[in-house]
Amino acid sequence: MRKKNFFAGPSVLPVEVLETLREQIADYEGQGLSMIEASHRGGMFEEMYDECLLKFRKLLNIPDEYDVYFLGGGATLQFTMIPMNFLLDGRSADYIRTGSWSNKAADDAAKLGNVNVIFDGKDGAYSRIPKIDELKINKDACYVYLCSNETIGGIEWQKFPDTGDVPLIADMSSDILSRPVDVKKFAMIYGGVQKNLGPAGATFIIMRKDMLERRNSNLTAYMDYALHSKNKGLYNTPPVFSIWAVKLVLDWVEKNGGAEGMLERAVKKSNLIYDVIDSSQFYRSPVEKESRSRMNVVFRLPNEDLEKKFVEESKKEGMLGLKGHRSVGGLRASLYNALPYEDVVALRDFMISFEKSNG
Fold it and tell me: What beta strand segments (E) does 248-355 contain?
């Protein structure tokens, strides 16, 4: 029996995808060799890759004026590549600090150039997304940077700011394709695939092509987005296995209603858990309601001993990954696209039962 996987990442994948990978790992679609041992120069890999990029464009409604490709290095490499390309000498970039991942991006950028923090949620323990009117964007900024969903703090942007002529860049590692997004609001969207799109190893890049005209052109090869744009992410050997799995996950997303279908799933699943929290004196959410993430539900119990007991007893019920991040403690249930609704129902029922026994 499969475990109920609430890990924040790498995270749950559709069983259908895992079964296809198993069935085709040695012989991809009867072609006599594995996808992961085939050359990435032409042939069956590039055919699969092109289908993957096309499907990604379709599901996110990405306009033609945007490049789409995959790189290695995880989202963390982008913390460096973005300022190396776009944070130009003598100018600054606006960063919005809402938690661990945007903080890491801002810290890395500050080592390379001038960073202007236009919001920092530290005083409120990173428990909310800023209101749009709190953001004072520098009209001369090279770009504005945000993280759309903070997995550790469990907060998510429900509405994105209009940055006018200043390019908006977003890390969407943990909520990509969990809802429709107006890509045209952004100059760049990127993220690691290991939450909603596939296994760890690949990073998706969605970038408006005119951003290349704004970049620092004096960079080493791999750090230069223009080189990757020219080669659709295939300048060097790509993370083949991860991309193949992403293609299969995108097929699954399409069969299950696309981005709109994923939003419906996310609302239903997250409401199950938030309803228990909100109707209880035993459970508590540290996040303001307007900022709550549908992907990562964080919550606390009356004390840490009960939280430890909750994790231990949930494991006996086949539930994994419910311990909060070590930096903040507490509990966290990650409800990514592929997590079955029935598993969230089981968690809800366990929470109700645990409160009755320990409240």
Answer: 296-299, 319-320, 331-334
Q: Has this prediction a pTM greater than 0.85?
A: yes
Nearest one of 209, 223, 176 to 82, comparing CA atoms: 223
Angle at 195 between CA 87 and CA 239, to 5 degrees: 70
**Residues of the chain under the 70 pLDDT cut:** none
Listed residue (79, 49, 76) closest to 242, CA to CA: 49
DSSP label at 8?
S
Catalytic residue numbers, as ranges: 101, 171, 195
Spatial distance between the Cα atoms of 105 and 110, rounded to a whole number of angstroms:
9
pLDDT at 215: 97
Query: What backbone torsions phi and psi does residue 156 show, to the nearest 5 degrees?
Result: -145, 140
- Residue 359 pLDDT: 80
Q: Which two tokens stand for residue 193?
A: 């695939």
Answer yes or no: are the C-beta atoms of 304 and 329 closer than 8 Å.
yes
pLDDT tens sequence across 42-52 = 799 999 999 99
Tokens of 70: 């995959």
